[in-house]
Amino acid sequence: MKWTKDEHMRFLEGLQALGRGEWAGIARDYVVTRKATQVASHAQKYFLYQLKNAGKQRRGSSIFDLPLPPAPQPAPQRQMNNVENPTPLRVRIPFWMHIGVTNSAPNPIRPRVNPNMQRQ
Fold it and tell me: Which CATH architecture has domain 1-48?
């Protein structure tokens, strides 16, 4: 099934945002009408087309001739209100630290020996 111009434009946006090789992410977040394998196949054809036709003028048009959409503008940086006393980050503590188990001295496991058994 042929790709529509809209699908290809969304593919290009995803490619620009996520990069090469992120076909599952592009399919999930940008081209929701296609599966990751279809996006990967389309990318392979797109890159081969770009290599083959670099610097050539074509008589016909192709979906691959569509220009890249403009790059998204980065979000403005937030300023901290109180630089001298910033809010501390929350850190996840492993559960064993909450129950008093220490990680420094492991508890050795001693095998249980039956005194009635004889060595051979």
Answer: Orthogonal Bundle (1.10)
